[in-house]
Amino acid sequence: MLSILIMILVSYLIGSIPFAYIVGKLFKGIDLREYGSGNLGSTNAFRVLGTPLGILVQVLDITKGLVAVLFVSSFFYSHLPFANHTPFEDITLVKIIAGVSAILGHTFSIFVSFKGGKGINTALGMLISLSPVDVSISLGFFVLILISSGYVSLGSIVASFSLPVTMFIRENFFHVEINGYGTLIFFTIAISVFLIYNHRTNIIRLLRGNENRFESLWLIRVCKIKAPLAKK
Prior knowledge:
The protein has helices at residues 2-16, 19-28, 42-49, 51-76, 90-107, 120-128, 132-149, 152-172, 181-198, 200-208.
């Protein structure tokens, strides 16, 4: 039990590292919480710090989820202190616990007064190792929504929603055998609900029509072309 508790704590602390805050301070000398949306996520980093630093923050946030799942869980794992009634191997269940701890750390970071980002990138890093096909499809939805609307938040919401839906369709309609589906589907639903809940203020702004949009990423637009006036 002690090793599991230590693993949860270490994963949480790794997830809590506020890379957006650190990058903002190191490269721009600013507290990102005081600019843009005030969120310590990659979207606000892109908007305030620029594309190169935004990419850096995004990669670092994804890495937090990967490190928790691939390294921390393996390092501290010895055996489960409880009966495993899931179809997962013990180590896979431990990886899920470590990944969730990292996501909670990112969203409620102990280093910045229990604030942070919305958890999308850290969740992405975690889920890549558990369900890469479904994550890839969800990323496709994200990109499609982003380039057709310019809204990162809307793309993130749709991608979060599509993950368990995609998994359900692949398993039940296309009869793809997803390892541990009976447990994984409920886990992904819970993660998706959590991520969408973290975007509740974005949803309100989207409904009101005042959500921030990345014009440079809005590549597919419905343009109204006015016919030229006929010469007299």
